[in-house]
Amino acid sequence: MASHGELRLIGENYDPGFIGMMKEDDGYGSSDDFEGALGNDQDTADNGRPPRKKKKKFHRHNPHQIHELESFFKECPHPEEKQRRELSRRLGLESKQIKFWFQNRRTQMKTQLERHENVILKQENDKLRAENDLLRQAIASAICNNCGVPAVPDEISYEPSQLMIENSRLKDELNRARALTNKFLGRHLSSSSANPSPSPSQGLNSNVEVVVRRTGFCGLNNGSTSLPMGFEFGHGATMPLMNPSFAYEMPYDKSALVDVALAAMDELIKMAQMGSPLWIKGFGDGMETLNLEEYKRTFSSFIGMKPSGFTTEATRETAMVPLRGLALVDTLMDANCWAEMFPCMISRAVTIDVLSSGKGVTKHNALQLMEAEFQVLSPLVPIRQVQFIRFCKQHSDSVWAIVDVSINLSNAANALMFANCRRLPSGCVIQDMDNKYSKVTWVEHSEYDESTVHHLLRPLLGSGFGFGAKRWIATLRRQYSSLALLMSPDIHGEDINTVGKKSMLKLAQRMAYNFSAGIGASSVNKWDKLNVGNVGEDVRVMTRKNVNDPGEPLGIVLSAATSVWMPITQQTLFNLLRNERMRNQWDILSSGRPMQAMYSVAKGPGQGNCVSILRGAAVNGSDTDMLILQETWSDDCGALIVYAPVDASSIRVVMNGGDSSHVALLPSGFAILPGVQTDGPSMQPDIDENTSDGCILTVGFQILVNSVPTAKLTVESVETVNHLLTCTVEKIKAALSVT
After folding, report:
1. Radius of gyration of the chain (CA)
2. Which of 350, 572, 667, 733 could in theory staple to 644 by disulfide, Cβ–Cβ 3.0 to 4.6 A?
3. Are 68-116 and 254-408+419-487 in the same CATH fold?
């Protein structure tokens, strides 16, 4: 029904003569017709004969009556009985004539208004239809600007994705509200019976996939569910990652994050699909690097301009991984599992907020806000602390894509905004293959402050071997190959039962993690950096106090690390350092005694990927109670040799399946990074720029300098550790006959 204002507006433009000339059968001024109808009915009832057809009477209102009625209608379309009687007296019309005139006038007004609205809606509909046809034609004839072929029709639909993400976010909020209700009501209210979740391991065809889907390469609940061989990743005592349950206090625009995520996903897909000239393939290792000029022509930045003084690194790598895609998606979408998958690359990872948990087990449209610390195993490369969003999208039954992109949740005026690095759209496209493998295309694109990196490591980072796609892929393949071997029933382990292997590997995992944290100065451990005058600038010395951690000796722990250039190949250096028979050539603490391997558990192909228990040879017929736990591995992007002295009685408990979390460890060891030469003069000392036979050796020690946590650290302790670093490097060079 139209409002009074609308009626008045239309009435002002209406021709009053139109009503004045209408016949009674049109309903205007029809009092005589109304009486005639009653008369016909009465005649039928009285005579019993069909009524005679009477000629309809016409009654025309004169212009004065029409003018008065129209004027009153403009002021009051619904006159009351008293007003109708007054009009009847003044115009010489019966009251019911006045009543019917107003009824018919309102009906006509409504019809006119509806007709007017229909005309406007039809015009708008025709306009939208024409625009839609033009858009369809444009999409059908779209041509890729880069390659000149028709564009891929399977583009991302932004609007449906936004709706699905918002729907999932609302479901998450409902679940949180239900959890609070459960907490305060003291009883369990669950919707699981109404919406049963499919089994996580549904559709998996191997033990490895079941393991990864259960654990995501990370923790299990109180050990209630274990791997088929009893091996657990990431028990609370093994990987003390940040608790992701806290809420981020600073407000942020979630809808804006959704827009950024969709744009980042679109860029990642294109960068994963496009070839030359966007990507330039290397000659030697085949690593693909980004053509920056072509990138600027193809893509526009949606996270702002590159910070002043920052350098760009961008690489792409593709490889086959022995795992189904969905299991890999599960691992990457869990912060703790992701960090444990890449322990030497990620020193800390935490999920700040889950904007969307995605669709079921597929994680389709899952979107979360994260923070992580990335590291290279060298004290000469600062930790990269990045805030970013991670978005997962399933593009088909067998294809997923996961993209990260940096964001800034702090005030723009904050000096820590993108302190030393920011990630442009980076991530991976995962495609399931028929042979139970997944094809993974990894794109890593970042901008960083090169001035904070020591000149010795700048070529490594610029080439992509530091944080690039090749390193991510190499670590991924090594970790999954290791897991597949651990699930094998014929796993090699001398005289160690399955439970003992589990405990031994957990202990080694904690040892390697603590070593990496000491090298990179992660914020997870409360390290205090020391500046001592007689310690070189290439040496990082840090200290912290252990008061109540049973996994370390109580007291003051001193950490010292440095990186040096070694004019020898990575494999030659690795073979020397992992060989227990040659250990006495460089290990000052071995007192020149040869070492032998008591037990060994393989973690991958080749002899160098294993966890071992070493024992020093007996001196004067007496055995020692001190053993060495050692883990070693090597891949295309580096190698690791980490070890720690352990008490013989403690290691026996571990090998019998006992709890390894209470074994006190202080790890030391070596990280080997590939040597990368630049086109110009070599920045490494004592090496010809025309040769590539060289690598970077990182040496790190963690030593208990005082068993009293409240004691003061002395300069003599720092000098002792610094001397240990220097002597160890010199002995290694002497053993290799290099300078």
Report:
1. 40
2. 667
3. no
From the candidate CATH numbers 3.30.530.20, 3.40.50.720, 3.40.50.1820, 3.30.70.20, the one assigned to the domain spanning 496-677+691-736:
3.30.530.20
Are the C-beta atoms of 597 and 721 separated by less than 8 Å? no
pLDDT, position 620: 57
What's residue 271's pLDDT? 94
658: left (phi over 0), alpha (psi -120 to 50) or beta: beta
Which residues touch 247 (CB under 8 Å, ≥6 apart)? 353
Count of residues making up the chain: 739
What is the distance between the alpha carbons of residues 212 and 331, in angstroms, rounded to a whole number? 7
- Distance from C-alpha of 364 to C-alpha of 260, rounded to nearest angstrom: 17
Task: Please name the amino acid found at residue 424.
Answer: L
Q: Name the 3-class secondary structure at 273.
A: helix
- Average pLDDT for 27-37: 39
- Sheet strands side by side (includes 555-566): 528-530, 539-546, 555-566, 695-706, 668-674, 638-647, 626-635, 610-616, 595-602
CA 585, CA 735: separation in Å to the nearest integer?
Answer: 6
CA-based torsion, 708, 713, 714, 715: positive or negative: positive
The type of residue at 730 is E
Mean pLDDT on 9-20: 40
- Count of Cβ atoms closer than 10 Å to residue 708 Cβ: 10
Can you name the CATH fold of 254-408+419-487?
Answer: Alpha-D-Glucose-1,6-Bisphosphate; Chain A, domain 4 (3.30.530)
* Whole-Å CA distances, 727 to 53, 589, 616, 700, 722: 129, 11, 21, 13, 9
68-116 belongs to CATH 1.10.10.10: no
- Tokens for 326? 């969905």
Looking at residue 170, its amino acid is L
Which whole-number Å values give the CA distances from 709 to 445, 521, 549, 714, 715, in the listed order?
Answer: 43, 20, 12, 13, 17
* Closest to 683 (Cα-Cα) out of 460, 371, 356, 427: 460
168-225 residue pLDDT tens? 667 766 766 666 655 554 444 444 434 444 433 334 444 445 444 444 445 433 333 3
For all residues of the chain together, what is the average pLDDT? 76
Work out the burial of residue 528: count CB atoms within 10 Å of its CB; fewer than 13 is exposed, 13-18 middle, 19 or more buried.
exposed
Per residue in 575-595, pLDDT (tens digit) is: 999 988 889 889 877 777 778
DSSP states of 154-219: ----HHHHHHHHHHHHHHHHHHHHHHHHHHHHTS----TTTSPPPPTTTT--SHHHHHHHHHTTS-
Closest C-alpha to 539, from 674, 683, 694, 378: 378
**3-state DSSP helix/strand/coil percent for the chain, to nearest 5?**
40, 20, 40
H helix and E strand count, the chain: 18, 19
- pLDDT value for 220: 35
Please list, residue by residue across 320-329, b when 16 or more beta carbons sit within 10 angstroms of its beta carbon and e when fewer do: ebbbbbbbbb
Domain extent listing, the chain: 68-116, 254-408+419-487, 496-677+691-736
Residue 512: CB partners within 8 Å, gap ≥ 6?
343, 344, 631, 640, 642, 667
- What's the pLDDT band for 390 if we cut at 50, 70, 90? very high
User: In degrees, to the nearest 5, what angle opens at C-alpha 423 toward C-alphas 422 and 428?
Assistant: 170
d(C-alpha 503, C-alpha 659), whole Å: 7
Q: Tokens 């003018």 sit at which residue?
A: 67
Give the span between the Cα atoms of 444 and 510, in whole angstroms: 28
